[in-house]
Specification:
The chain has about 350 residues and is of the alpha+beta class. Helix content is about 30%, strand content about 35%. The protein has helices spanning about 25-30, 120-130, 185-195, 200-205, 220-230, 230-235, 240-260, 265-275, 295-310, 320-330, 345-349; strands at about 1-5, 15-20, 40-50, 55-75, 80-85, 100-105, 110-115, 135-145, 145-155, 160-165, 175-185, 210-215, 265, 280-285, 315, 335. The strands form 3 sheets. It has a 7-stranded antiparallel beta sheet, with helices on one face. The longest helix is centred in the C-terminal third of the chain and has 18 residues, at about 240-260. It starts with a strand and ends with a helix.
């Protein structure tokens, strides 16, 4: 992600001009954009022209649109990012207040304005522009006639594509640290042998970091959970951001099941636990940071910052990923506590 222009101050209105350079940047931008933001970029629109014969002809023209965002959609399978909203200004082709959808594309500049650039938004922007592209892990999981490709890393947490093409079409083995080949049957072993039979020097150099994993599940989402829970795989990427999140979520669910006084979930419980300086690790879905309600968003940003300042850890989860989906079912916010709080619910009252 390339930052072309920047006029931002913490907790003030501001704008940036950005050019996306990689597919990963689309995911980062999805996390940066919120409902209520204003985006402007060049797009094309079909314009109809009347003719003397009564028939209408149409031409496609380029124009720059500025819209106030009402919804953001990211398609993981096709890596398409679309924003929808109302146009701010009118011109000869578009009236102000009309709904329009823009596709955010690579190698095309766009301007993004926010009423408030809070610390979470600025951190997302800095992370995206850091230039770090290395991924922790590529997972190739085979099911029937297709391969599911997952990339696990610091910039793009987990993405998935479904493909029958060679993995080199989607994975740059120069930057992926480790590779997992998995399936419920023998396909994984056959493909592993195929990978190592070629003359690719990069793959040859990384063969010690290519592992084969058998999954019992034939369902992609469940198989991914199995792979990421595999001890050999976890050791390969033990210092990665994603693994630390997975471990935190695993510890949370364990605490809820076996030692419930050392865990809590729900905004009120978490806030009370924080007032008692009891939070060791906060887990929160990033949707709460994308709220159109600025006061609500700032409340959660401040909570995360305060917990970190107090020496605690905080992890953001996407509800588009498996742990994030499960966290969303627990209200979207939860905490692992430093010490038991058996009467936490009574304290809230």
């Amino acid at each position: 992600m390339k930052l072309v222009e920047e006029t931002i101050i913490l907790n003030e209105p501001g704008s940036v001009k950005i050019i996306l350079e990689e597919t990963d940047d689309l995911w980062l931008t999805y996390n940066l954009i919120s409902v209520g933001d204003i985006i402007s970029t060049e797009t094309s629109s079909k314009v109809h022209h009347p003719s003397d014969s009564g028939k209408k002809s149409a031409t496609r023209i380029k124009l720059k649109l500025e819209i106030k965002i009402t919804s953001v959609d990211f398609d993981r399978n096709s890596s398409l990012l679309r924003v929808r909203g109302k146009t701010i200004n009118s011109n000869e082709h578009v009236t102000a207040g009309a709904f329009h959808t823009l596709e955010v594309e690579k190698n095309k500049a766009f301007d993004l304005k926010k009423k408030i650039w809070d610390s979470a938004s600025i951190d997302s922007l800095r992370d995206g522009c850091s230039g770090t592209t290395e991924a922790d892990l590529a997972i190739l999981w085979f099911s029937d006639s297709s391969a599911h490709l997952y990339l696990v890393g610091n910039k793009q947490q987990i993405s998935v594509q479904k493909s029958t093409q060679k993995p080199s079409k989607h994975v740059d083995f120069n930057i992926v640290r480790s590779v997992v080949v998995g399936s419920p049957d023998s396909v994984k072993d056959e493909f592993h042998a195929y990978m190592l039979s070629g003359s690719n020097k990069v793959i040859e150099a990384k063969k010690s970091r290519i592992v084969v994993v058998t999954t019992s599940s034939k369902v992609p989402k469940e198989a991914l959970k199995e792979v990421l829970g595999n001890s050999t795989v976890m050791d390969m990427i033990k210092n990665g951001n994603v693994v630390m999140k997975l471990r935190a979520f695993k510890e949370l669910t364990k605490m809820i099941s076996t030692n419930s006084d050392r865990a809590c979930y729900g905004t009120k419980s978490v806030e009370t636990a924080h007032e008692l300086e009891a939070i060791d690790t906060l887990l929160i879905i990033d949707n709460l940071f994308k709220s159109a309600d600025i006061a609500m968003r700032q409340k959660y940003v401040s909570l995360v910052k305060s917990i970190k300042n107090a020496g605690g850890k905080a992890y953001l989860f996407s509800p588009m990923h498996v742990p994030g989906e499960q966290l969303a079912q627990l209200t979207g916010i939860a905490a692992i506590l430093k010490f038991p709080l058996p009467d936490l619910e009574e304290m809230e009252l």
